[in-house]
Write a structure and sequence with these properties.
85% helix, mainly alpha, elongated, 184 residues, 7 helices, 2 domains
């Protein structure tokens, strides 16, 4: 366990020293405060965690964290010639969508628990972190995929019926709009 924690600490430190905009900002803060960027990063994570527990607008912050970085990476993946990154981020969005639907029904109860937004944020971060036991990969392969494969025929039948009804509704709406225009 200690070896795993040390590995992830080293990975986090490596990220803090990568050559990017965040690293430039951290270098400036580090130079002005004389505090190592590892401690600045840890302090930021601790403050963000406390804010997600006690702060106003924690739901917004949590949803931004679960959306902005994955959306950015998804756009980059779409623009790259590789297919693997597309699959990775599509898997994240499938899990995110399932979680959002489940959350809709439990949100009123769960949001009253003090650590809910922190736990949700940690869950979403686990789902998009680039690691071998990535949450979206685990959830998709252990829960979503087996359930989909088992019920694929029934799902296809229902989706076909829904598509037919939507087409009927669109045809009816188009006819009503056309009749309304003609009567004017």
């Amino acid at each position: 366990m200690a070896a795993n924690l040390e590995y992830y600490r080293e990975q986090a430190v490596k990220i803090l020293y990568q050559n990017n905009k965040l690293s430039e900002i951290l270098a400036q803060v580090e130079a002005k405060t004389q505090v190592k960027r590892e401690y600045i990063g840890l302090g930021t994570v601790v403050l963000l965690s406390l804010y997600l527990v006690f702060g106003f607008g924690a739901q917004l912050i949590c949803n931004i964290i679960g959306f902005i970085y994955p959306a950015y990476c998804s756009i980059k993946a779409l623009e790259s010639p590789k297919k693997d990154d597309d699959t990775k981020w599509l898997t994240y969005w499938v899990v995110f969508a399932l979680f959002s639907v489940c959350e809709f029904f439990s949100d009123l109860l769960l949001s009253w628990f003090p650590f809910y937004w922190l736990a949700k944020c940690m869950f979403l971060v686990w789902c998009f972190l680039p690691m071998s036991w990535n949450g979206s990969h685990v959830i998709y392969n252990r829960i979503i995929r087996p359930a989909f494969i088992k019920h694929q025929k029934e799902i296809d039948t229902v989706m076909g019926k829904v598509a037919d009804k939507v087409n009927e509704l669109a045809d009816t709406a188009s006819k009503v709009a056309s009749d309304a225009v003609k009567s004017d």
